[in-house]
Amino acid sequence: VLEHVKKYFDIRDSDGKKGTLRAVDDVSFAIKKGETFGLVGESGCGKSTLGKTLLNLSPITDGTIHIEGKDVSQLKGRSEKVQFGSKVQLVFQDPSACLNPRNKIGTILAEPFKIHFKKTMNKQEMEQKIDELLTMVGLAPEYKHRYPHEMSGGQKQRIGIARALALNPDIIICDEPVSALDVSIQAQVINLLEELQEKLDLTYLFISHDLGVVYHMCDRIAVMYLGNIVELADKKALYEETLHPYTQALISAAPSIDQVKKERIVLKGDVPSPSDPPKGCKFHTRCPYTMDICKKEKPLLEEVKDNHYVACHLCKQRN
Ligand code: SF4
Ligand code: MG
Predict the structure, then answer these.
(1) What percent of the chain has pLDDT over 70?
(2) How confident is the model at residue 2, as a pLDDT?
(3) What is the whole-number distance in angstroms between the Cα of residue 299 and the centre of ligand 1?
(4) Is the model's pLDDT at 71 over the cut of 70?
(5) Which residues of 141-162 are buried (b: 16+ CB within 10 A; e: fewer)?
(6) Residue 265: pLDDT band by 50, 70, 90 thresholds?
């Protein structure tokens, strides 16, 4: 459960002027146990930053994050943080970047056990765990003797997933887990994630710029624009009863979702800088329906239909 989470960065522009980058600007949502929650948006919209705040990798500026009833910001001391760390795991976009090239796979997979069970787990138990993890992600136990560079991109991502699974996490944050892979491999990794979810009752936060992938994977989807969630709904409702003009444009640009071709909506202009976002509705500089009020008042995320939330003045008038 995230409530009013904000993550601001202090920045300086080229003239040395101080500013604030509102990467995540008052975001609230609750991920249900066992679901796949999708977070979609263009690069720079704050979705990765949000993922990192969940991991407690960087302190948030304001708001609260509860995981399994526990307030993440209130964790004290190293041991509590380490213990919490095992509950939330991350699968990265680029598996190569997070696998130490000098270590064999066996060593890499042993790390989480060494950190968490240093005293209670013997070498043999650890070996057995590593074999289990490799089998779970569809690789033969022999792979533990290999180095990362001896493996393909898809195999490395399987190792990334195995490592995330090592400590029985409650939630796995998948940040663009397949966008660095070939399309044919993407499907395999997605299938693996789905199988594992079923088997282990995992909860996923699935972050991606690719609405097609998110649509395939997720139960509910939140659409982010410049640090705000602009629409949140079950995927079917999001697709079939799209409310926010930005979501409409994203969907129209993702023809892979189904065969029915919706008319392509091309947005004018570029994404404004997140350090100097437009006033009122941050989308008003690109929205085809901008009204006067949009330039002045920021629309809040409100439930307009059952479990369908949107932040848009126009949608509220219509509903
Ligand atoms: Fe467009 Fe106004 Fe809705 Fe923003 S609030 S998305 S500018 S209609
Ligand atoms: Mg990102």
Answers:
(1) 86
(2) 56
(3) 8
(4) yes
(5) eebbeeebeebebbbbbbbbbb
(6) confident
Q: What is the mean pLDDT of the chain?
A: 84
Which ligand is located closest to the Cα atom of residue 283?
1
Q: How far apart are CA 9 and CA 201, in angstroms?
A: 35
Per-residue pLDDT reduced to its tens digit, 209-252: 888 889 989 999 999 998 888 999 999 999 999 999 999 999 88
Q: 248, 281, 295: which to mutate for ligand 1, most atoms within 8 A of CB?
A: 281
The b/e string for 8-31 (b: 16+ C-beta within 10 A; e otherwise) is: beeeeeeeeeeeebbbbbbbebeb
Mutation probe of ligand 1 site: the residue of 284, 295, 297, 316 with most atoms within 8 A of C-beta: 284
Instruction: Delimit the domains of the chain by residue range.
Output: 2-87+169-318
CA 9 to CA 28: how far, in whole Å?
Answer: 19
Match domain 2-87+169-318 to its CATH number in 3.20.20.70, 3.40.50.300, 3.30.750.24, 3.30.360.10: 3.40.50.300
The ligand that comes nearest to the alpha carbon of residue 310 is 1
